[in-house]
Specification:
The protein is α/β, with parallel strands linked by helices and about 290 residues long. The protein has two domains: about 10-245, Phosphoenolpyruvate-binding domains (TIM Barrel, Alpha-Beta Barrel); about 250-290, no CATH class. The chain has ten helices and ten strands. Helix 3 links the parallel strand 3 (about 70) and strand 4. Helix 2 runs parallel beside helix 3 (about 80-85) and helix 9 (about 250-265) packs across helix 10. Pfam families: HpcH_HpaI.
């Protein structure tokens, strides 16, 4: 079972850490997780102000901290430790680590968090981590190295920073689909998350007005094995939440397959609707029912 499955992780809604209004809107939304951003959404000059605003927001929030996360700056920048020192006394539920280059970055973050948890009287190890694992070219080669990484509950990928990292002028094909390298990043993130036994989280859709494309994309990646998606606008949340729940038809079929194997214990394969299903079908059916809360 994936670590942290008690925490819903379908929709992750970003809000800039220097906007109290947008943080309030994200926290009040139906997003499973609200992420207060101290990285890309905040200019270097505004980072000290944003840190204080995020800390104040966390301090003023009485409950629900488990779904209030903070995206810090990468651990190899001069901002990361200052971000953590500012926000950790506010007890965020988790930290999003951008531009993770590999397992060592998560381990370094774990050391920082342990010290800050101890200082703030927070239960050691309770602050969860999502790592963005494909935002740098070098990171593409380490996506399979995160098994057992401390605190890690989810992995996501990014296409925009990756394009910058490799010097690409575009990351899309003429039809709007991602180019090969970015589809590879998506696949490597999924495989890495499966290897680490954590949730794979799909990257953002920048056009927040195109909800039909969002629905189709979220539905597809959920069927591929993704368990949630990043969002940049509250309008995307309901679509994402719905897409990452199995349909009634999928649930019905999964229940039939589970019941079929339960009625025929010990079989490796069995006939079903004119075809054959085997143990991998059973495993997928059980996973789908778990996702549906069955």
């Amino acid at each position: 079972m994936t670590q942290g499955t008690a925490l819903k992780m379908r929709s992750w809604l970003f809000a800039p850490g220097d906007s109290e209004r947008k943080m309030e809107k994200a926290a009040a939304s139906d997003a499973d997780i609200a992420i207060f951003d101290l990285e890309d959404a905040v200019s270097p000059d505004e980072k000290p102000k944003a840190r204080k605003m995020v800390r104040d927001f966390l301090d003023s929030t009485v409950e629900g901290h488990e779904r209030l996360w903070v995206r810090i700056n990468p651990v190899d920048t001069p901002y990361a430790l200052g971000d953590l020192a500012a926000v950790m006394p506010g007890r965020p539920g988790g930290i999003m680590l951008p531009k993770a280059r590999g397992r060592a970055d998560v381990e370094l973050l774990d050391h920082y968090l342990s010290a800050l948890e101890a200082s703030a009287g927070i239960e050691l190890g309770s602050t969860k981590v999502l790592a963005l694992v494909t935002e740098a070219a070098e990171a593409m080669f380490t996506t399979g190295d995160y098994a057992g990484a401390p605190r890690l509950v989810a992995m996501s990928w990014g296409a925009e920073d990756l394009a910058d990292s490799i010097g690409a002028s575009e990351n899309r094909n003429p039809d709007g689909s991602y180019g090969f390298t970015y589809e590879l990043a998506r696949s490597l993130c999924l495989l890495g998350a499966a290897t680490a036994n954590v949730a794979a989280i799909e990257t953002i859709q920048a056009d927040f007005r195109d909800l039909e494309t969002l629905k189709a994309r979220a539905t597809k990646v959920r069927r591929d094995g993704y368990r949630g998606m990043l969002a940049i606008h509250p309008a995307q949340v309901a679509v994402i939440n719905d897409a990452f729940m199995p349909t009634a038809e999928e649930i019905e079929q999964a229940e039939e397959i589970v019941a079929l194997f339960a009625a025929n214990p010990g079989v490796g394969a069995i006939g079903y609707k004119g075809g054959m299903v085997d143990r991998p079908w059973l495993a997928r059916a059980q996973q789908l029912l778990a996702l549906a809360g069955k």
